[in-house]
Amino acid sequence: MSTVFLLDPLVCLGKPDLYLKVNQQLQGYFDRVGRAMRPAEKILVAWIPAAPTPTPLDLLVYFTPVEYSVVSRFFGKPVDPLAVSHWGYTQFQTANGRVTVAASEVYAKSLEPDLLAKLAFHELMHNKLVTGNGLHTRNGLAQATVGPNTDLSAENIADLAAAMHNPVPQWTGGVDLLLSARRLRDAGDPLWYL
Ligand SMILES: [Zn+2]
């Protein structure tokens, strides 16, 4: 069994029902992926309030506010979530042509649970399929623009089901960075996001 960890250390979703709805929708998507695996497997989707310890078969996605890209800190390259059209970001570190760590985030530009779940699934496809813009040539939730009318497709399910056993280590260093930013923000520091 693998786990999809959802993290929101900066509490940008905020409302209990929002967490529940995003979790339920993603669980539904990953139930379909798990059923398409041979043999079928259970994939658990869960919010985790502490620092997770994912195995390379697990997945992890951060939800962040538009002021703060945590993945850009992982990658060492600035990203302004307000300036990018994509409402999420996934990056990889590689060594000798192999991916050593992957990091994904979704910007909570909208507090629409359906959209947040779809964006998270999109970034997790980038992550598990270890692919950049090439993903956007696929249909359904793999398309470059994911909106309320975009849906999980048979192709998405098949692509991810085939990849779930590929080990992709997940970056957990974002938790501490986001918790530090939260402490500054909650203490009233106007530059908390820098
Ligand atoms: Zn994308």
Strand content: 15-25%
CATH class type: Alpha Beta
Q: What is the CATH T-level topology?
A: Collagenase (Catalytic Domain)
**Biggest sheet descriptor:** 5 strands, mixed
The radius of gyration is 16 Å
- Helix proportion range: 25-40%
Mean pLDDT: 94
**Termini, distance in Å?**
38 Å
How many domains? The number is 1
**Architecture (CATH level 2) name:** 3-Layer(aba) Sandwich
Small-molecule binders: zinc ion
Which structural class best describes the helix and strand composition? alpha/beta
Uncertain residue segments: none
**How many helix segments?**
5
Give your account of this protein's structure.
The chain has 194 residues and is of the alpha/beta class. It has one domain: Collagenase (Catalytic Domain), CATH 3.40.390. It has helices at 16-36, 70-75, 113-129, 154-163, 174-186; strands at 2-7, 43-47, 59-64, 88-95, 98-107. The chain has a 5-stranded mixed β-sheet, sandwiched between helices. Helix 1 (16-36) crosses helix 4. Zinc ion binds at residues 86, 122, 126, 135-136, 144.
